[in-house]
Amino acid sequence: MQNTAESRAVLLTGGAGYIGSHIAVELAASGRPAVIVDNLCNSSEEALRGIAEITGVEPVFYRTDARDKDAMREIVKKHNITEAIHLAGLKSVAESVSNPLEYYKVNLGTTLTLLEVLSECGGTGKVIFSSSATVYGVPDHIPVDEDAFAGTCFNPYGRTKYFNEQIIADVVAASEGRLSAVLLRYFNPIGAHPSGLIGEVPTGVPNNLMPYITQVAAGKREKLYVYGNDYETRDGTGVRDYIHVVDLARGHVKALEWLERHGEGKVEIFNLGTGRGSSVLEIVHTFERVNNIKIPYEFAPRRPGDIAEYYADPSKAERELGWRAELSLEDMCRDAWNAEKTLQSRAK
Ligand SMILES: NC(=O)c1ccc[n+]([C@@H]2O[C@H](COP(=O)([O-])OP(=O)(O)OC[C@H]3O[C@@H](n4cnc5c(N)ncnc54)[C@H](O)[C@@H]3O)[C@@H](O)[C@H]2O)c1
Question: Whose CA is nearest to atom 23 of ligand 1?
Answer without folding.
Answer: 14
